[in-house]
């Protein structure tokens, strides 16, 4: 068993045991010989419209039913992981004094990689939780779309590269996945910004070869697409199983402003994306 630990964040409304983030997390943990912590927090709150016409006893019964189903979902995911030979544990209780989102972020700091979805249709938006974990935990977050299949694959990985500190951080945070890959492509998008670096493509490729990676450098043009679209389109065209990229964000007048590519990926990922900040 390796010393890697993965955390899967799931929800009663958003998690499907056989696809999406759940399947990715179990497959990744198996491939990395990692321990998997399954975090599916109990949510005791009900939508306000659900209160009308209900007695206190009925609301208590519905809350107990949700808690039972949440625990059952977490145990089902952990059981499927154990069937794959993965060491797994579950957590459904959380420290209410700190708030659920803050609690999730605190737990994320204790793991190597976080896996989650970005479903915005459920009461506690996975998209909002993902943004908090990404920028507050200091850990890389694998964003997996709900339509992602039931089989984990990591044969081809594409890394967004712009010679920046953030890109370097993402590259190194993704090394557990890169070492599983048969092919790693570093893609630099021309026309998006000016790059200043003394490292030529062959120097970068040689440095990654010394880490045991079969990597090559590629430059594409932005054209009419946005940077987020260009990166995801190229990843899909190249048959990538995973896209790796740095995440940008900054505070301005109490409002947190996301970088364009980061926002696009969080809003609509087309394939699994490992984001690092």
From TrEMBL:
CDD domains named among the record's database cross-references: USP-like
A Pfam family assignment: Usp
Organism superkingdom: Bacteria
Chain ranges of the UspA domain: 155-275
InterPro entries the UniProt entry points to: Universal_stress_UspA, UspA
Family: Belongs to the universal stress protein A family.
Designated name of the protein: Universal stress protein UspA
